Amino acid sequence: MPLFGKSDTFSENPEIRQVEKMVAKEARDDQKALDHTIKDLSTAEKAHNKSIKAADKAAHALDKAVEKEHKAAKALNRAAHNHDAAVTSEQSAEKTVQIKKQHEARLEQDLEQKRRQMDEIQQRKSHNDVSVCSRRRLCTPGRRVLRHPGRRVC
Length: 154
Description:
With 154 residues, this protein is mostly helical. It is built from 1 helix and no strands. The longest helix has 123 residues, at 14-136.
């Protein structure tokens, strides 16, 4: 007996024919349900395959993002290290400048002290030279003092 369409083999008895029609209808409904289930299964398999591909693509994107993050972290660490080194260098240079300025100030004080000492010595020498000349009247043009041979006092 065919599943679809009318059959010539239906019996003559109306009750049996009714049962045969019901069985044929159930067979058609079962076939439709089976076809629908097969179609649903095929759609589900396609969706599953797409989801597998999408998951693989997402995993690949994640790997790339992790690699990019690692590179960025490495660059950030390198930049932080360079910044720290620059700050340290700057602080060292500031200390060096401060030390050099202190040294310069100390040398300037020493220089000023030596200038004062030189001025005092020159004044004393000048005063002593005038004093010697006025006491002994040794200073005449062309005459030399015996205490300092080879040097002219006046």
